[in-house]
Amino acid sequence: MSEAVDVKTLQINGHEVSALRGQTILQVARENDIDIPTLCHLDGLSDVGACRLCLVEIKGSNKLLPACVATVYEGMEVTTDTERLQKHRKTILELLFAERNHICSVCVSNGHCELQSLAQQEGVTHVRFPYRNPELTVDASHERFTVDHNRCVLCTRCVRVCAEVEGAHVWDVMGRGINSTIITDLNDNWGESSCTRCGKCVQVCPTGALFDKSKIGSDHPKYPDFLPYLNEMREAQ
């Protein structure tokens, strides 16, 4: 005899919703058409709570919790859009712009960038923090793709898709804190690495950090929605 499904009842923005045990706040919110901004999350990949844009308020807690990794519980009361959260999200986006070298007007992903779209959505019109302007490299050694570290936001989507979907484990993160950077293999040039040339990392990159050389100077759309399909096919096999 099958076990009964464990259903939780909670509130999001004052609306009562139901969820299954183990679901995250972000999953439940999206099932109920409640928007929570996020940059590092992508359906089909594990969640790491890296960008902190999906922070939400939980009644009874002074802490802001990342909705992508915080699981629901019975009676939970969640608020996703308050003045406090709006200030946090704007600050995080401004810090992301200030940390590296994001110049939308000359970026290959201008108009197809999630960081740019989120900044517009959250009303970021200027950056209050001094730009770091780090001297970062551009690796064009790969025959098809290029990695521009100036535009990386360390979301680790490339790392996770390479490990979890492709199973190649080419990408990783080197360094700590503000000095962190993504690398291939043991910090080898991309063109000299063990890369399988599948291009999944390029498709899931939310900015112009990873891009296809053949699409420079033209529309540069990406199709991250293919990941859930790939996972379904893999599980079916």
Question: Could you explain the architecture of this structure?
Answer:
This protein is α+β, with helices and mostly antiparallel strands and 237 residues long. It folds into two domains: 7-81, Roll (Ubiquitin-like (UB roll)); 86-236, Alpha-Beta Plaits (2-Layer Sandwich). It has six helices and ten strands; from the N terminus they run ββαβββααββαββαβα. It has helices spanning 25-31, 83-99, 114-121, 157-166, 200-204, 226-236, and strands at residues 7-12, 15-20, 55-58, 64-66, 77-79, 138-139, 145-148, 171-174, 181-184, 210-212. A five-stranded mixed beta sheet has the order 2-1-5-3-4, sandwiched between helices. Strands 6-7-10 form a three-stranded antiparallel beta sheet. It has a two-stranded antiparallel ribbon with strand order 8-9. The protein is globular, with a radius of gyration of 19 Å. The model has no long low-confidence stretch (mean pLDDT 91).
**Segments where pLDDT lies below 50 for 5+ residues?**
none
The level of helicity is 10-25%
CATH class of the largest domain: Alpha Beta
Order of helices and strands: EEHEEEHHEEHEEHEH
Q: How many angstroms separate the termini?
A: 27 Å
Estimate the strand proportion: 15-25%
How are the strands of the biggest sheet laid out side by side? 2-1-5-3-4
Please state the structural category. alpha+beta
